[in-house]
């Protein structure tokens, strides 16, 4: 393919990206190139490029960008460089050198910050866990764009929700949201922002119970709310779940988590989240906190020999009381534990064993048994 | 064992023995392909790719099959005269990741003096921030991976004096979580790859005692799935690269025996491509250099004597680390 054809394809793509304010997705679609149609198409804001031309056009844009990088660019070359790097990054966003060129263009005022936000969003539509695109946005918000109000935080949180819905356990999207949470907590409207963030993330979590990254974020949010309230930065009474102490905050979360475990058995994530909540409760709310002790012999016993500890001790009665009278069980599980680590551990043990008994498949059982082993390691 | 929704099945069709010769051919021929599209598409990770290939070939006892002169000359051309950092390929920008890969290769080939060592030291130490963290390059991204790269690189060059070690440790500890693991930044989710980086860095600096061995060891061995493979986080699929990140971490914690080694070995062997050679992420996928090194490195950690012994921190053959007289900390050894 000659370089003029490559340039035409690159320009067409560039024009579509620049003219469209309402961009949807970008992707490479399979096409052999035998039919005589343009390889670049746009349908309802979604842009595609035909697979047959990608190889040739990418090589052209790639080598042109690198050649251009070696010297001081003239204005014309800057325009070409903007198009080439855009093309390359849409295809291969992992190439740091091209992001660096973009940043140099932005610093010279030749590419606008808003244009770059559009490009990164298009890239995320195709590769929702692209760390480079998330970092570019952080760089833009830190160094280029004005971030005085809080609209940008809300918009960016929406982007995270969108990206996390497109890829399971999207580490970098949740990390990006954590970066936003740090900004949010410094904001003067933090009570309002926290309220909407808490509500939106809990709603999402309840329908994504296998999302460990999400539950980690939920627990981070809770931990930061606890810390902020201690520092007088936020008021727990004014943000959900509307409680009056850090201990009550953890209790409310444990209760929420327990409802999910009962409703959706067999999800490792929920038990991992529970373990973190219990350990954070111990760290932040128990006066005479005892560290989790080393019980290596026990660990070896249950892991190496496959011997599952504690699974035999759940009695029929306990199981029934949990299954038939769930709210009562829940109350006894979480309400009387403030400052009483030993009783919390005891309740956790009963709960874990009840989960094993209630399991309706081997897999559900193995997940609950893992939590029995985890609780077995909590020191009393 | 119960059917696991996020695991793979290993059948009789999958390889059961180590296909040594196939792997050597796979790596050597990969390093000779230079004209195709694939080469352009992977040029931004060329330096790491070379490190994966050359280390893997050395573990297989065939280091002589690689063209040493060509490799060293390539690295020389990748060093940036101004910053001192090393780029992943010619005409690309220097970065912490490619700088460590280049130093690892040069140490392996006993050719460190062929580059401007002071330049590398200047580059790496210049990327440390006041809170002790490290940037990946001059654009400022922070990640605990870069803390490992910086410390490992400077230890190999015997120049740890160039950074603030105490602050480095302080930052990495801020990235630890209640489950005992580590994430990319303070508050980030625990990830087996980051655990390796943080433990490796603490081991080099002799600061492993700051870690809760049992809590972390427990989390790590829970990564083993019924197939024997390891995932890097809960609810993720197994991937052969975690046979390195998790096994090396457990080795540093002196708790490698907490996983089932036979099942682990079966899983790693099943990820070999019996036709082309090389290892894949999961049985039946397409092989690459990255998974090939970490598959072999995992087998070496498990004690496969047909491979050279690997160092659990530097991911380089142990004899190379011994020659430099570098010792690492392992829990229970001191």
TrEMBL record, chain A:
Which GO molecular function, any one, fits this protein according to its record?
protein prenyltransferase activity
- Is the Transferase keyword given for this protein? yes
Q: Which UniProt keywords apply?
A: Prenyltransferase, Repeat, Transferase
Which Pfam families does the record cross-reference, listed alphabetically? PPTA
InterPro entries linked to this entry: Prenyl_trans_a
Q: What is this protein called?
A: Protein prenyltransferase alpha subunit repeat-containing protein 1-like
What species does this protein belong to? Hyalella azteca
Its ancestry begins with: Eukaryota, Metazoa, Ecdysozoa, Arthropoda, Crustacea
What protein family does this chain belong to?
Answer: Belongs to the protein prenyltransferase subunit alpha family.
Q: Which GO terms describe its cellular component?
A: cytoplasm
What gene makes this protein? LOC108667071
The record's Gene3D superfamilies line, in alphabetical order, gives: Protein prenylyltransferase (1.25.40.120)
UniProtKB/TrEMBL annotation, chain B:
Could you say which enzyme class this protein belongs to? transferase
Keyword set, alphabetical order: Metal-binding, Phosphoprotein, Prenyltransferase, Repeat, Transferase, Zinc
State if Glycoprotein is listed as a keyword: no
EC number(s) reported in the record: 2.5.1.60
Tell me which cofactor or cofactors this protein depends on: Zn(2+)
The source's domain of life comes to Eukaryota
> GO cellular component terms?
Rab-protein geranylgeranyltransferase complex
Cofactor: how and how many bound: Binds 1 zinc ion per subunit.
Function of the protein? Catalyzes the transfer of a geranylgeranyl moiety from geranylgeranyl diphosphate to both cysteines of proteins with the C-terminal sequence -XXCC, -XCXC and -CCXX. Catalyzes the transfer of a geranylgeranyl moiety from geranylgeranyl diphosphate to both cysteines of Rab proteins with the C-terminal sequence -XXCC, -XCXC and -CCXX, such as RAB1A, RAB3A, RAB5A and RAB7A.
Write out the similarity annotation.
Answer: Belongs to the protein prenyltransferase subunit beta family.
Q: How does it assemble?
A: Heterotrimer composed of RABGGTA, RABGGTB and CHM; within this trimer, RABGGTA and RABGGTB form the catalytic component B, while CHM (component A) mediates peptide substrate binding. The Rab GGTase dimer (RGGT) interacts with CHM (component A) prior to Rab protein binding; the association is stabilized by geranylgeranyl pyrophosphate (GGpp). The CHM:RGGT:Rab complex is destabilized by GGpp. Interaction of RABGGTB with prenylated PTP4A2 precludes its association with RABGGTA and inhibits enzyme activity. Interacts with CHODL.
Q: What is this protein called?
A: Geranylgeranyl transferase type-2 subunit beta
Q: What is the scientific name of the source organism?
A: Hyalella azteca
